[in-house]
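Worked problem 6 (solution included).
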Amino acid sequence: MYMYRYKKNVMILLLCNVIFMVTWFNLKELQVNRVASTAAFRMQFMEDCASLDESSFMGMLAEASSGQRVVDYNILKRKAKYSISEEDYKVLLQIVEAEAGCEDIKGKMLVAGVVMNRVKNSQFPDTVKEVVYQQSHGVVQFSPAANGRLGKAKISEETIEAVERVLYGEDITEGALYFASRKYADPELMKWFDNSLTLLFTYGGHEFFS
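Solution. The predicted structure is:
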């Protein structure tokens, strides 16, 4: 009789464990579904927002309907604001390194930005190379193009990053078309800058004008 009760109690205990395990798995399943559904909803929301302001989402967007447990991701490649040739890209890296090699990444972006502002301005040539090597009354616009520093520039990773960010649309120049280092510039040239242009701001070792 005792053994019968013992076996009965063991069976009841095992049955309770089985019921507990089944309940636990069902609850976990419900939680997973809820999380997947929430993630899918958020990804769908991101996609909807991207259609309103595509520039705000340069990374990865997802397409998924609410309730789906598997989320498919579509990677949208960033689109460059400027499309330039390999030769122009090389010259842009060189002029930024030569003019702002000692500056931080913002200083490098400013120099690259001024060059690109000129490229898109009707008063200047249409390519980076032509802008960098342009002369006015026999005087070069960028001194490294004349003194040999342009070809000797060793391009840093930070310079590459700065140029890439500008080419992909980051503009911090406030429309500047000129810059100069008053410390090293010809005094007569700086007089022309001061009398003929509008000083926008100073950053690092350069003054920026429009």
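Discussion: The chain has eight helices and seven strands.
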